[in-house]
């Protein structure tokens, strides 16, 4: 395992270029609690960007229009509270396919967001398909919102119409993730210590409850082929689940504090987890090995101190779509961009009170949400991937580590394909 502490000499580190800001409006006498932006999300096709402005409001903006506004009007853009507010039960079919800015009142504090898109050939697992209330077409784009009261609301992104209200969790819905295969299978992670699997093509039927966490579940993420789910939470927990059988594959051991975020690489060969122990680990999810460690405190705290309070808690981690870079966000007011084969951050940016981050669909921009409901955007490290890396990703998309190890190729090539060099 490679352990990568941060370098002391900041002259070697490049500062990321700020793209723009979306600042949440602050009303007079506005309470500071409840304004947190816990999740930012980009639509799978790159058409929309969504975030929680705090309290119970979610804002949806056309992403291309947002970028254009940054270029025309500068980086700062205070979101306008007088923008179009759509009634939750009304829709405008004539404007369905034209991206519009929406403000959605979710009825309670929003803790999580996720976009989901439909693929018609991916049928529901329910046999009684003729009784479905909703017919999801190829152009369907949904937004799921997880609320403080344990409910999950499903919205039509194009119209702002409320489609489904999923009720089963008994505590805060802390995270949501859709299966990337277009099946509209949704997984929710909650403080009630469970993960729940929902089939939106079956009118939101709850298919399965995944139990195993002994404490709050903070985050969950699908592998790119939708066959595996990672879930993380309090008490150092990192779980991997088989999503065909809904069984636990293994529990990963290594962190020394609560694990709060996770994300798979685009080829599914790597898994990144972020923890309050000041570390980001890169795992091989197929065998549970830790391949890399990115430290946010130097020297790294010993296990007995890593479990305590410090100003380097890592809040979020996200894999870029190039498979070479990850972004991490920590309590030391820094956003770091790492290369998976470098021992120091290749770019950094300043951010106070950050909570979450996500790469845009094309990987060119990183968005980060903060305690006050605002969002900040930076240009990401740009590098043309090598042909070797592109070939490695193509192979790893279809071959797990066990099959790679059986290939009749030189050992150095095996190490490269296994992300060990």
From TrEMBL:
It comes from the Eukaryota. Pfam families: SOCS_box (PF07525), WD40 (PF00400). Keywords: Repeat, Ubl conjugation pathway, WD repeat. Pathway: Protein modification; protein ubiquitination. Residues 377-421 form the SOCS box domain. One of its GO terms (cellular component) is cytoplasm. SMART domains: SOCS, SOCS_box, WD40. The keyword Repeat applies. WD repeats lie at residues 136-165, 166-208, 210-251, 252-293, 314-348, 358-378. PROSITE patterns: SOCS, WD_REPEATS_1, WD_REPEATS_2, WD_REPEATS_REGION. GO terms for biological process: intracellular signal transduction; protein polyubiquitination. PANTHER family: WD REPEAT AND SOCS BOX-CONTAINING PROTEIN 1, WD40 REPEAT PROTEIN. Probable substrate-recognition component of a SCF-like ECS (Elongin-Cullin-SOCS-box protein) E3 ubiquitin ligase complex which mediates the ubiquitination and subsequent proteasomal degradation of target proteins. Recognizes type II iodothyronine deiodinase/DIO2. Confers constitutive instability to HIPK2 through proteasomal degradation. This is WD repeat and SOCS box-containing protein 1. The gene is WSB1.
